[in-house]
Amino acid sequence: MPIAIPAICLPPENWKRLRKSIFGCHLLTRVWLDTDGNAIQAHGGGILYDHNTATYYWYGENKDGPTYQIHPEGAHRVDIIGVSCYSSKDLWSWTHEGIVLPGERTNITHDLHISKVLERPKVIYNDRTRQYVMWMHVDDGNYTKASVGVAVSRSPTGPFSYLYSFRPHGFDSRDMTIFKDDDGMAYLFYASRGNTVLHVSPLTNDYLNVTSAMRTILVRRFREAPAVFKLRGTYYMITSRCSGWAPNPALAHATHKIMGPWETLGNPCVGGNHFLRLTTFLSQSTFVLPLPGLPGTFIFMADRWNPSDLRDSRYVWLPLSIGGLADEALDYSFGFPSWSRVSIYWHRKWRLPEGWRKS
Question: Which PANTHER family does its entry note (predicted)?
């Protein structure tokens, strides 16, 4: 998988000036292996940069099991194995730290029983409680539970203790993410009301629940797979349309206030052919990673799902930049935005710039 990125602040024509590196390999053919030589199993995941250890931790769904359908019309699935964790100093070599939140094999009533659903785990660190807090989408095999689950650990490598699940604000919750702001406040974003809207809510100070505040955004837009990030006081988000395992065009959104309203900027995908741009490079968003030492530098993380064999789903990591005018007028005011275009650039190979690890 391509793993390193050029500086985001550079225009595309300057991205050819890349340093020599071992990073970068063919996106369409390679399986990304950990340091033990095994395929990385961290789907639908996200990355925590832990300042305490100066290490990146990648959490995601372990799907290293057989893919099957409960019934002919049901979704393709893998029994819950758990949440994997990988650690890295360079974003290329990943060490498997184990399954930090395992599925439950005996208690069929447990939220994480192997027959149920665990998706899109995200971890943030709470500076007040000194706990690592994991949020995830938990569901039953028929996707009718539609809840969030919460787990905690004193270590980034676990084990995480599962606490409970609930429907935030009483609404169904499917694809979700959490975002920690510069001031330490954290927020939950979740697809709701049959995936017709997204909801956003602040978390409590311990990050273990939502507050009573909630706003509905992207009404009747049918968006999922949110990935939220921030640059110079503006919040951005990448979302996917709801189309099951099939890829579709991503959309970028922006706001000056995290609780909204959010405006849509258009499809952020640049380069490749028309088909790749209309399928988010055959992938679906899961996370956008900022890099320390390079303000404004991001990696767009996505999953290239293989519904017939989910364990063989691949990862798409590409450089993301912010700059230039948005391609489309604002949804609500029909004016032009005060923020810039979000661009995800297609590269078969690419590399990190010098100095990206400087804090």
Answer: GLYCOSYL HYDROLASE 43 FAMILY MEMBER, GLYCOSYL HYDROLASE FAMILY PROTEIN 43
- Cβ 249 vs Cβ 230: under 8 Å: no
Residue 3 is assigned to a structural domain of this protein: no
pLDDT tens string 305-327? 999 999 999 999 999 988 866 55
| Strand-strand pairing, 215-217 and 197-202 | antiparallel
26-82: pLDDT as tens digits: 344 489 999 999 999 999 999 999 999 999 999 999 999 999 998 888 889 999 999
Q: Is 147 exposed, middle or buried (0-12, 13-18, 19+ CB in 10 A)?
A: buried
CA distance linking residue 336 with residue 344, whole number of Å: 20
Q: Is residue 1 part of a domain?
A: no
Looking at the domain assignment, is residue 359 inside a domain? no
> How many domains are there within the chain?
1
Query: Which range of residues forms the domain containing residue 221?
Result: 12-346
User: Is residue 356 situated within a structural domain?
Assistant: no
Q: Which long-range contacts (CB under 8 A, 24 or more apart) does 306-312 make?
A: 307/67, 307/76, 307/244, 307/245, 308/67, 308/76, 309/67, 310/43, 310/63, 310/67, 310/76, 310/77, 310/78, 311/39, 311/41, 311/63, 311/64, 311/65, 311/67, 311/78, 312/31, 312/39
How many CB atoms sit inside 10 A of residue 214's CB? 18
- Residue 74 has, within 13 A of its CA and on its CB side, a CA count of 14
- How do strand 186-192 and strand 197-202 relate by DSSP bridges? antiparallel
User: 0.85 cut: is pTM over it?
Assistant: yes
What CATH number does the domain containing 97 carry? 2.115.10.20
Closest CA to 169 of 186, 190, 151, 154: 190
Do you know the residue count of the chain? 359
Whole-angstrom distance, CA of residue 85 vs CA of residue 47 = 9
- Looking up tokens 């099951």 gives 244
